[in-house]
């Protein structure tokens, strides 16, 4: 692998004629451009090859599969699948379980994203402006849930939320309230998953916001304080507007993450009780890999993809309008 | 300046301790599930099912760990997770820094198109590719193999983006000087550029390793044979197994979760600077 370019490059340089003349320099520059061209493509090849096989091909294949009746037998013989036109897509929009999954996913995003961004921002401001000592310690603590294995964490939360011997039930006993059966209740299961997701993801927002806060010049703050701005005014009038690009970036990535939510309901509820935590990704997994309705599952994946792209574009456009 | 200080100081004296209390309470809420997990892993069956729940085990035991090792082949799953994560990381370090170098420092036709591909790839959700990827890996007879687990993640767009950002800060004059001396592009990349971006390589190593360690949906789909399960797949399968004995089984799950999470938390605590650097860099435009 280490022999790809050094030899031709070296010999090329030796052969380059006419030391300092402008003509020679120009020719050498042109030749070096050609070499860079070749090298650029050689350096790109491994990534592009893997990208083509394991990303581009699957993206296109999902689209094709979504127009077929791709089922279990086709896993061995993909070419035998029959073209069914838009049937999968029309079926989706009369499929109660899928509509429920769409609703649940939207619920997760609409409630979860503002909570995650808001709390993340709050913690960032707190740690950046109020805490001088043990700053790293606090930061590490708030960020720790982000790095932990989500399956393990979801298992732990399952027991934290347990109605008989869970942490919150125990707290309820001490404080005199009865904790609901969070994961067994149609009303509480989804909010429970959202709380867990907020707990897990606010650290990412916090780190992004701290980086953004530190990019705000100290003089701007000083000036505001000299003019007698309160802490709240400073947050609303200075911090948030100047953080807008960071806030939008954090919103985009959190939204994309929540639209794809899978592990939490898979480990904690398997979509239940009665589909109240069925998300689009979970529905897709069940349809695709439990019932092997892979054509149908592909249509689900594409609907989700289109929704994600649409929302991302919308958010990025909002950002452009705001920076004008 | 001196006029401001006296008016601000008293206010600060009142607020500061309060802020520390608020931050500490927040931190306690964040840490509670971890503490609960770590303590429960050492509880006896009686303490695990006690109502109201007990925080501190009345009797410390290692039985949950020994039961877990008896019932699940944890060393095997641990080894699988390590092998997959190491292979994924090595591949990403090499391929992402290669393309990052090309995008940052090589003037080649199609550079902007390739960068466009990388940016687009950043936005594509993994769930979109999972169905045909399963068919493809199955056709290639790579189900239940390390290759099948590693190849789809061998080169990530995030890594390319990260490496490009860091490599752009290397002065062009340095590379031009090396080219004048007759160094080839591979030599420049390997001997000059890579040593200069060691912090970025460290960041990418941590992110890729943890990403692979924590990955769930693909290993869940790409393995049927328990011998090839990674830790999260084994743990989730066990957690959703109706035959798992209640009570004692819960202790085993806490012990298992602790074993999966603990290495990650230790690595993170030691290398946390690189994490924040990586996130912050990715957030910059």
TrEMBL record, chain A:
Residues 102-315 form the ABC transmembrane type-1 domain. Keywords: Cell membrane, Membrane, Transmembrane, Transmembrane helix, Transport. PROSITE patterns: ABC_TM1 (PS50928). GO terms for biological process: transmembrane transport. The chain crosses the membrane at residues 38-67, 106-128, 140-160, 193-216, 242-261, 294-314. Belongs to the binding-protein-dependent transport system permease family. This is Sugar ABC transporter permease. It comes from Streptomyces tabacisoli.
From TrEMBL, chain B:
It is a multi-pass membrane protein. It comes from the Bacteria. The keyword Transmembrane helix applies. The chain crosses the membrane at residues 18-39, 77-102, 114-137, 149-167, 188-210, 252-271. Keywords: Cell membrane, Membrane, Transmembrane, Transmembrane helix, Transport. GO terms for cellular component: plasma membrane. Belongs to the binding-protein-dependent transport system permease family. This is Carbohydrate ABC transporter permease. It comes from Streptomyces tabacisoli.
């Amino acid at each position: 692998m280490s022999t790809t370019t050094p030899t031709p490059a070296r010999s090329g340089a030796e052969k380059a004629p006419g030391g300092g003349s402008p003509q020679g320099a120009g020719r050498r520059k042109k030749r070096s451009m050609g070499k860079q061209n070749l090298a650029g493509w050689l350096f790109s090849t491994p990534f592009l090859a893997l990208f083509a096989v394991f990303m581009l091909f699957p993206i296109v294949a999902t689209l094709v599969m979504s127009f077929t009746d791709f089922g279990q037998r086709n896993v061995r013989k993909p070419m035998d699948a029959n073209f069914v036109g838009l049937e999968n897509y029309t079926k989706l929009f009369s499929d109660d379980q899928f509509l429920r999954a769409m609703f649940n996913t939207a619920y997760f995003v609409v409630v979860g994203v503002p909570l995650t961004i808001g709390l993340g921002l709050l913690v960032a401001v707190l740690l950046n402006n109020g805490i001088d000592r043990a700053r790293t310690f606090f930061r590490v603590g708030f960020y720790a849930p982000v790095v932990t294995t989500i399956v393990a964490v979801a298992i732990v939360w399952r027991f934290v939320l347990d109605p008989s011997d869970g942490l919150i039930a125990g707290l309820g006993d001490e404080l005199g309230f009865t904790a609901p059966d969070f994961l067994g209740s149609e009303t509480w299961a989804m909010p429970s998953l959202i709380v867990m997701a907020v707990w897990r993801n606010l650290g990412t927002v916090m780190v992004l916001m701290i980086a953004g806060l530190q990019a705000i010049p100290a003089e701007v703050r000083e000036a505001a304080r000299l003019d007698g701005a309160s802490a709240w005014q400073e947050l609303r009038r200075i911090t948030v507007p100047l953080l807008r690009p960071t806030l939008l970036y954090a919103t985009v990535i959190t939204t994309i993450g929540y639209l794809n939510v899978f592990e939490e309901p898979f480990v904690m509820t398997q979509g239940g009780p009665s589909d109240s935590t069925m998300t689009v990704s979970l529905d897709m997994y069940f349809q695709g890999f439990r019932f092997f309705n892979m054509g149908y599952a592909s249509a689900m994946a594409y609907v989700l993809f289109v929704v994600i792209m649409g929302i991302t574009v919308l958010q990025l456009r909002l950002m452009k309008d705001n920076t004008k | 300046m001196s006029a401001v200080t006296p008016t601000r100081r008293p206010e600060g004296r009142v607020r500061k301790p309060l802020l520390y209390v608020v931050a500490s309470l927040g931190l306690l809420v964040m840490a509670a599930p971890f503490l609960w997990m770590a303590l429960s892993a050492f509880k006896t069956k009686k303490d695990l099912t006690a109502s109201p729940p007990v925080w501190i085990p009345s009797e410390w035991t290692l039985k949950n760990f020994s039961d877990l090792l008896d019932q699940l082949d944890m060393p095997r799953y641990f080894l699988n997770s390590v092998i997959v994560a190491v292979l994924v990381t090595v591949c990403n370090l090499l391929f992402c820094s290669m393309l990052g170098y090309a995008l940052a420092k090589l003037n080649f036709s199609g550079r902007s198109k390739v960068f466009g591909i990388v940016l687009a790839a950043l936005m594509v959700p993994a769930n979109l590719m999972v169905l045909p990827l399963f068919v493809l890996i199955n056709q290639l007879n790579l189900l239940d193999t390390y290759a099948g687990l590693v190849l789809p993640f061998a080169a990530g767009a995030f890594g390319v983006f990260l490496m490009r950002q860091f490599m752009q800060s290397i002065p062009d004059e340095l590379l031009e000087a090396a080219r004048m001396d007759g160094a080839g592009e591979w030599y420049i990349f390997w001997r000059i550029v890579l040593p200069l971006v060691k912090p970025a390589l460290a960041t990418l190593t941590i992110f890729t390793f943890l990403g692979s360690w924590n990955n769930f949906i693909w290993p869940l789909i790409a393995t049927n044979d328990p011998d090839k399960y990674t830790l999260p797949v084994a743990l989730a399968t066990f957690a959703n197994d109706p035959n798992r004995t209640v009570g004692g089984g819960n202790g085993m799950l806490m012990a298992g979760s602790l074993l999966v999470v603990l290495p990650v938390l230790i690595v993170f605590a030691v290398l946390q600077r690189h994490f924040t650097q990586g996130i912050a860099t990715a957030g910059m435009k």
